[in-house]
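Posting this for the archive.
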Amino acid sequence: MFLISDMKTEDSGRYRIGVVNKWSIDMTLTVREDSCCEASQTVMVNTGETANFRCQYSQDYKTDDKVIFKKEKISIVMIYSTWRKTERFSISDDRDKNLFSVRITDVSSEDAGVYLCGVQRYRDSYTYFIITAVHLNIMSQVGVVKVSGYSGGQIIFKCHHPQYKNNPKYLCKESDGCSERKSPSVQDQWMKNGDVSLYDDTTAGVLMVYFRDLNAGDAGTYRCGVKVSQYTESFTEIQMDIKQALTHWWVNQSVYVGDEVNISCQIPEEHQVSKLFCKEDENHICQNINTSKVKLNDLSPKSVFTVTISNVTVRDAGVYWCGAETTERDLTLISLTTKVQLNLISE
C-alpha cells in the first residue's frame, strides 16, 4: 500500500508499481477538480469531551463504504469503517447531502493527530480515496482560576509550565473561540502583542501576561496555555472579572531630593496574601524594587500599607504601583491597584 497526499493536478499520469525483476502493473491516475470537498479542516476539543467532524464526498462515492484512517509516524492505520467498528468511534452517512459525520467520544491526548476521511471502492482493486484531512487538536485543562482586576489598574498573570520550559506558550480569549492567540515573538524578553505584553521565561517555565489600563472589555474567560506537541496542548482557564476602582486609589506625591517620603497604598480587602510595590520602567512594565532604601510597612486595616523611600534621588522619580500577589494552583496573580506618581521638588 502507498499513499499520495496533498494531490495536485500535475500528479496525474501513468505510474508503475511492482517488485523489481518479478512483476509490475501500470496505473493511470487522473486528478480532477471537485468543489465538493475541503482539503483539510481543524477541530479542537477538550479531553473527556466528544469530537465531531463532517466529511463531504462527491456524488460518485454515494454508495461506497466510508472509512477513517489515522496518520502515524511512518504509516496510516485504518481506525474505522462501515464494516469494521471501533469503540468510541461512529460514522453516520447522510447520502442525501453527500456527507458523513464522525463522532469520537471521551477523547484523550492519544486521540490527537491527523485523520483521513475516505471511501473504499471494491471495483477499483480495493482502492481508498481520501477526501478530507482532519487535524484533531486535544486540549487538556489543568485548572480553573477566578481572578478580579480593577478598572484603570493593571494585572499580571504568571502561568506556570515547569515541565515545558521551551515549548511555545500563548494566551487567548474564549469569547472569540481562541482564534486569536497572543504569544511572545521572542523568549526571555517582554514583547507587546496588541493590548497586552508577554514574557516567556524559559528558565522557570513561566508565561507572564501583563494587562495595562484595565476596562470592562477585558473581562471574560482566557486560556493561558502551552503547546505540548503538534496536536496537544495544556492550559489553565482564567475567569477574569473587572470591578470599578475607587477614586482614592490614585496618588500624586512630591518630595525634595535627599528627603524621605511615606506613601500610603490602598488595595482591595480580598487581597490579603502578599503585598508588593513596583516601579514602571521605560517600557511601562512594573518591575520589583530590590533596594534597602524602600521598605513596606503593614498597617491596620489590612487593606492599607505604607511604603517608605529614604534618601530620595533623581532616579527615584517616576510611576509606582501598589498591589498584591496571590498564587493558586498553576497561576500566580499580581493585581496592581494604586498608581503613585512621585515627583521631585526643585529648590
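The radius of gyration is 29 Å. The chain has no helices and 25 strands.
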